[in-house]
Amino acid sequence: VSANSQAAPASAEASKLSSIPSEMKAWVYGEYGGVDVLKFDSKVSVPEVKEDQVLVKVVAAALNPVDFKRRQGKFKATDSPLPTVPGYDVAGVVVKVGSQVKDLKVGDEVYGDINEKALDGPEQFGSLAEYTAVQEKLLAPKPKNLDFVQAAGLPLAIETAYEGLERTGFSAGKSILVLNGAGGVGSLVIQLAKQVFGASKVAATSSTGKLELLKSLGVDLAIDYTKENFEDLPEKFDVVYDAIGQCDKAVKVVKEGGSVVVLTGAVTPPGFRFVVTSNGGVLRKLNPYLESGKVKPVIDPKGPFPFTKVVEAFSYIETNRATGKVVVHPI
Ligand SMILES: C/C=C1/OC(C)=C(O)C1=O
Prior knowledge:
Helix content: 10-25%
Bound molecules: (2E)-2-ethylidene-4-hydroxy-5-methylfuran-3(2H)-one
Number of strands: 14
Order of helices and strands: HEEEHEEEEHHEHEHEEHEEHHE
Radius of gyration: 20 Å
Largest sheet: 6 strands, antiparallel
Oligomer: single chain
């Protein structure tokens, strides 16, 4: 869909607006808990767009660990009110724009992480729905070479990967060890470190069956954590990117003066933890690497999960065994 609404006659424009229903299908939970709190609701109100937001017809959405941790109530102190429609990552088509929207228009194919602050007041109505309202600044045009499933699997993970590398001052010629290199974030840290930041050496850990994936993503040293302990390696790294929660071991293999990036779990100095800030500008900046194929989304082959199978998708990502991203499509 790439209709230029500027040229569309008023009647076509009106028909687009009139085709937006007042109610939609969405997955909702009204209480914190296990996957059993997730309910499919076919009469959820379509969110109104604020001045700086666009309404996206959702084509695909992706799950992240933050989705199940939030549903479990781990961030309830700073959460938005229940009931919640979960889902941070979205890929879809703009069907309505707010009065202050500047660059996006009806018909644009977009993707992004809908929550600027992942844990602090996330949107009550997320992307596991037929429509979701998103601030323009959190979205970017979908890379032309990626389908909606591939695009949906990128935003939160690639923005986390990029921000973590930026925060360490990672630069050309440096070495990095990525813990959980086959995961949603880790698979992108490997590629960004190599292709965008010019790493001299990239090492990564995974289980036996995912070693070939690590090598295909460009690692120089693939470590099978079922067979050896990375913390016993004689080699030290400028940066260790802990995308699994093993900071206490990670700090044993970082060089003096190096950095250990922590996403979750306890932090041991010199480790530091950060929470991703969603930013469409990062997606735009990385667009050439995505459209050239230098950086690729990794989508778990058990998916994409159809909209009716969101409970199964959550159960799967909660095994912490997913390869790359768990995507929900069609919606
Ligand atoms: C995406 C943000 C996250 O922040 C914490 C602490 C996690 O565990 C997340 O997934």
